[in-house]
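Fold sample X.
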Amino acid sequence: MARLCRVAQRSTSTASNKVSGVLVSSMMRGRLWKIGDRIFDLSRQGLIMGVLNVTPDSFFDGGNFFDAETAVEHGLRMAAEGGHIVDVGGESTRPGAEAVALEEELRRVIPVIEQLHRKSEVIISIDTSKAEVARTAIRAGASIVNDVTGGRGDEEMMPVIAETKSAFIIMHMQGTPQTMQIAPQYTNVVSEVFDFFRQQYARAIVYSIDPMAIAFDPGIGFGKTLEHNLELLAQLERLRACDRPIVIGVSRKSFLAKLIKSAQISDRLAPAVALTSLLRTRGADVLRVHDVKENVNALKVTDAILQRAK
C-alpha cells in the first residue's frame, strides 16, 4: 500500500511541474485534484460543490427540483453564486430511502446534465452508484463521479472511471441507505474509514484509475452515530489516505439538529456554514453544500486567512 501511495505522489509531483501558475507548498504538494483536463491546487483554494437533487424524496430539498427545467435553473443559480461544482443526483441516499431503477435514474439526471453542460462551464458531478448512469452522465457532460458506495455497489464502476478518465470521489458508507443508520458500530471509526480508503485506492490503481483523479469522502451520516461523526470531523487530517483530497458533506444534516437541539431544518444553516470554515482549516478540500452563496463567502474569507498564515 505504501508503494502505491509513493507512485501516486511521484505522479502528482510530475504533473504539478507541467501546470503553469500552480504553486504548491512542500507540506501540501499532495493536494492536487485532476478533473478532466484541469488540475486544481486545493492547498490554495477549496472548492464548493453544490447539491442538486433531482428527486422527490431527498432529506432537505426533495421535490423542489424534481422537474428538469427547475433543476437546471437551480444548477445555474448555484454556478452564478460561485459554486465550483454542481453535483447532480437522481436517487436519494437519505436513511431508509428506497433504491431507484436504472431507467428512472437516467430519466431524472441526464436531461439536467445535458442542459447544464450546454449552458454553463461549471464542473458537473454525477452522484450515483450505478456504472451505467455514470457512463451516460459523463457522455452528457459530467466529469466527476461521486459514488456513495465507494466503488463497491457496482463491479463495473471502476472500469468505467478508468475508461472515461473521470475524477472519482470514493465515499465510505457502512451498510446501505436502507440499513446504514440501524445501530452502526465500529471498533475505531477513524482507523476503519482510513483503512477503507486505502483499500479502495489500491483497487482503483489496479483498474488503472489515475491517482490524481481520486478524492475521498468519509460519509458523514452514512452509517455513523453522532459520536462517530464528531470523531471523524475532529480527526479529519488522519483520514488523508495517500495524500488525496478530502470531500466533506455536513450541510443541513440531522446530526447538526442533535447538537443544537432544534427540530427546525432552517436552524442548521448557520452551524453548517461555520463548519465550512472550521473544516477547511482542518484539512477539508471540497465542501458539499446545499446553500452555495453562504458557503462560498465563508470559504473565500477562510482561504484568504489561510494563505496569509503560511
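Fold sample Y, listed below.
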Amino acid sequence: MVMLGACAACASASDQVALFRCLEAARNGTIARRVTMDATIYLLILVVAFIGIVIWVFGRKRKARFEADARIPLDEDKGGQS
C-alpha cells in the first residue's frame, strides 16, 4: 500500500478504488492546496494575534505605568544602590 502523509484516505485505503482516488487527488494537487490553505489560515490567525498583542501592550492605558516602571532603577529612595 502506498501512503501519503497528508492524505488520511490513503492511510485507510483497503481497496484499490479508494487508493486510486487518493493517488489521483495527490497527483492533481488537491492535497497540496488543502495543506497550503490550512497553513494560510494559521498564518493569518497568528498575524492577527500578534497585532492584537502589540496594540494591547502599547495602548494609551499602559503608557503611564511603563513610564513609572522605567524610572524604577533611577529612584534611589526605593532601596537602590547608594
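Sample Y note: Residues 1-6 have pLDDT under 50 and may be disordered.
Also: The first helix runs from residue 8 to 11.
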